[in-house]
From TrEMBL:
Keywords, ordered alphabetically: ATP-binding, Nucleotide-binding
Species, as recorded: Timema bartmani
SUPFAM superfamilies in UniProt: Actin-like ATPase domain (SSF53067), Heat shock protein 70kD (HSP70), peptide-binding domain (SSF100920)
Name the record gives this protein: Heat shock protein 70
Pfam family membership, one: HSP70
InterPro entries: ATPase_NBD (IPR043129), HSP70_peptide-bd_sf (IPR029047), Hsp_70_fam (IPR013126)
Length: 450
């Protein structure tokens, strides 16, 4: 089976994860460490990347580049740019073309390197690690990760850097999406859920200390941090489940490797998925069984299509037939519902269970199938009219959350605004559900492409 990699280049470190034979492993570097310092040091006759560069930082400050990722962001404001320049140990200048360069002294000579060239150096280091772990592969296929706020230009810069280093880049995804993928959230869950990805990484930048240099300090810090995290989560989200079993320095690379395992070829080579349309369910779908008054929630609104949900329900021995009604609501919390249709299973014998499959295809057709597993008796309902189809159009933003639907479409858009010619989704509600800005209004139209 072909291998695939997930590569995460952070401000202070880089990590590489490998997907092979259905498993994902984090690959150690030549020093045996699973995380490689994102540090590049220049000397008169050589260039050093990784742990050795970090180890010589105190002796070679003016010729060592750290935190290069900050300058890969092409949308930095003047204030943000000034702060980055002020805090960097290596001198940063603008050349005659107003391009950002590091000024590095190599012996008696001054040399100049762009942030992209520094990124290439680090990716080459990661490529050598990847190559050592997959010697039989002619091409090293990889998914890269970038901050959510990176725009198309920044993502293209990161992709070019990795490709120049030797990687065959399959896709560039946002870091929060990779973190969610690492834990498998949303890949198999049938219920709608919300996931908060929160990352802390400012300790060293603020206090100019690296607690990782002392094992005792790290042990104390980790214990205190775990206590603090669980306390905060339990107070703010008493019913939430916290995922923290994967090393925070490795989780993004692991998620990227999982995304790479879904891709057979390069996807979105121009990093245009920040403005992509996806078909989705515009209204939530419910079912109701005979003898029950409660509607059961089966397909959430805004679910990308095609989508299929299968649920199993027990049936008492007093029923020789069972009817399942299919409903839609304007919103999940609406008091009123609309009956779309029904299907009835007959000739049931004694206590049993039934399987209810609800399937919406990619043009909005809806199909419900009822099955009694023992006898294989079936009944079905089919609605061909694309009444449930909505178009979800994305737009770029530095502050929007990311959503991941990798198993279905390998698309990880940043955010969406929603319109439909069949059944309109309240824009404010859709944006609030996705964490977006409801300030922009949209009109109605009978043409879903308008």
């Amino acid at each position: 089976m072909a291998v695939a990699f997930g590569v995460h280049l952070g401000n202070s470190s880089a990590c590489l994860a490998l997907f092979r034979d259905g498993k994902i492993d984090v690959i150690a570097n030549d020093s045996g460490d699973r995380v490689t310092p994102a540090v590049v040091s220049f000397h008169e006759n050589e260039k050093v990347v990784g742990l050795a560069a970090k180890a010589g930082l105190a002796r070679n400050l003016a010729s060592t580049v750290t935190h290069n990722k900050q300058l890969l962001n092409s949308s930095l404001s003047e204030e943000e740019y000034s702060n980055v320049v002020e805090k960097h140990l290596c001198k940063i200048i603008k050349d005659k073309d107003s391009l950002t360069k590091y000024e590095v002294k190599r012996g008696e000579k001054l040399c100049y390197f762009s942030p992209e060239e520094i990124a290439v150096c680090i990716y080459k280091k990661m490529y050598s690690i990847a190559n050592s772990s997959a010697r039989s592969e002619s091409e090293l296929r990889a998914v890269l990760c970038v901050p959510l706020y990176f725009n198309q230009t920044s993502r293209q810069t990161v992709m070019r850097s990795a490709e120049e280093a030797g990687f065959d880049v399959l896709q560039v995804v946002s870091e929060p999406s990779a973190a969610v993928l690492a834990y498998g959230i949303g890949l198999q869950d049938e219920e709608e859920l919300f996931c908060l990805v929160y990352r802390l990484g400012e300790f060293r930048q603020k206090w100019k200390l690296d607690p990782q240099e002392s094992r005792r300090s790290m042990a104390k810090l980790m214990a205190a941090a775990e206590t603090c995290k669980h306390k905060m989560v339990s107070d703010l989200f008493p019913e939430a489940t916290m995922f923290s079993s994967i090393n925070p320095d490795e989780v993004i690379a692991v998620g990227a490797a999982k995304q790479a395992s879904f891709l057979s070829c390069s996807f979105d080579p121009d990093c245009e998925h920040l403005s992509m349309e996806l078909p989705a369910v515009s209204k939530p779908i419910f079912i109701k069984l005979s003898g029950q008054s409660e509607l059961k929630y089966v397909i959430p609104e805004l679910s990308p299509v095609p989508v299929k949900r299968i649920h199993t329900y027990p049936v008492d021995s007093g029923y020789s037939e069972i009817t399942v009604e299919l409903y839609e609501k304007e919103r999940i919390d609406s008091d009123t519902s609309k009956l779309l249709g029904k299907a009835t299973l007959t000739e049931l014998n004694g206590a049993t269970q039934i399987s209810v499959e609800v399937n919406i295809n990619n043009i909005g057709g809806l199909h419900m199938t009822l099955t009694e597993p023992k006898s294989q008796i079936k009944a079905s309902l089919k609605l061909d009219a694309p009444r449930q189809l909505a178009l979800m159009r994305s737009y770029s933003s530095r502050t929007r959350p990311s959503c991941s639907f990798s198993m279905r479409s390998h698309i990880i858009p940043t955010c969406w605004k929603v319109k439909s010619g069949f059944s309109f989704v309240p824009y404010e509600d859709a944006m609030l559900q996705l964490g977006g800005d409801p300030g922009e209004s949209i009109g109605t139209s009978e043409d879903p492409e308008s």
